[in-house]
Amino acid sequence: MNIAVHDPIPQITTPSATDQTGSAQIPVATTAGTKDRSFGPVHIVERNSEHTHTAVILHDRGCTGEEFAKEFFKSTLSDASSLSEKLPRCR
After folding, report:
1. Total count of domains within the chain
2. Is residue 1 part of a domain?
3. Cα 24 versus chain centre, distance
4. pTM confidence score
5. Both ends of the chain: CA-CA distance in Å?
6. pLDDT in tens, 12-70
7. Quick one: which H or E segment has residue 17?
8. Is residue 4 domain-resident?
9. From CA 47, how far away is CA 28, in angstroms rounded?
10. Domain around 66
């Protein structure tokens, strides 16, 4: 299924982010906040390889998408692996 977006949001690409240990390279892109976006800027994590799935994760209004992503990506699963390791083609 292809979804066409007729009103693209301009993106500002930021350098790769690292987790608290400084080891994980996570490419990110954010969008500039615009007056028609009542909830502020959007935070998008870009994948390093071709992706086959897209996940949209919502956070509460008490933090930004960037803050949530940092906490989310430093979290580990019960086997000590990360979601990025388990789902390498998910963006």
Report:
1. 1
2. no
3. 14
4. 0.44
5. 16
6. 333 444 445 555 555 555 554 444 456 677 777 777 778 788 888 888 888 888 888 88
7. strand 11-17
8. no
9. 8
10. 11-86
